Amino acid sequence: MSRRLRACLAAPRPRGEQGQVLSSLVAVAAVVAIVAGLLVLFGTRGHDSKADEKPAGASTPKASEKPSAGPTTVGASVPRPSTKPTSAPTSAPSTVPSSEPPSTVPTQPTQPTETTQPPKPTQPVTIPAEERPAIEVYNNTSQKGLADSVANRARQAGWTVAGSPDNWHGKIAESTVYYPPGMLDAANQLARDLGVGRTKGALDNMKKDRLTVILTSDYSG
What we know:
By secondary structure, the chain is an alpha/beta fold. The chain has helices at 3-10, 16-43, 146-156, 184-194; strands at 135-139, 166-167, 176-179, 199-201, 211-215.
């Protein structure tokens, strides 16, 4: 033990209640002094603490005795550029123009299609006078002498009037030249010569060997 601790233990203890209190304080002080002494004792020991010990298996790296030859210039993961020239592309773009020059001849404009001319009207058939059938002229109006005047006009045009002009009793829609089968061309020619606007097949009560003309109020000659 240290001298201070020994002195404390050897000191005489007072008597009575005051002596007991003092002895207790002395005891506490002695314990504190012992703890402090231990702390000082262990705190002043040089490098015996395990906290400063090196971990097992650890070793201090030794410095290289030989200096390094210099900083390395080639990275391990960086590829070196190739010193050989790269091969030419397999197919270079063609700069030679095509042997065939572009056509500079302007295209001819499309000719406009010719408009189709309407067919020319066929010339009316002219029947010779000797081949024309006979005709009969009838008046279906209240105008007297109409059938006679039209019959004279037909004769002047080369037609043969059969019988005397007469009146027609019945309802007729308009002035008409009636023709039997096979006399259509003759009926058309007679209608042109007389200025009649309609031709029609002969009625049942008409003669079948001639043309029949019936004049109504629409006839203007």
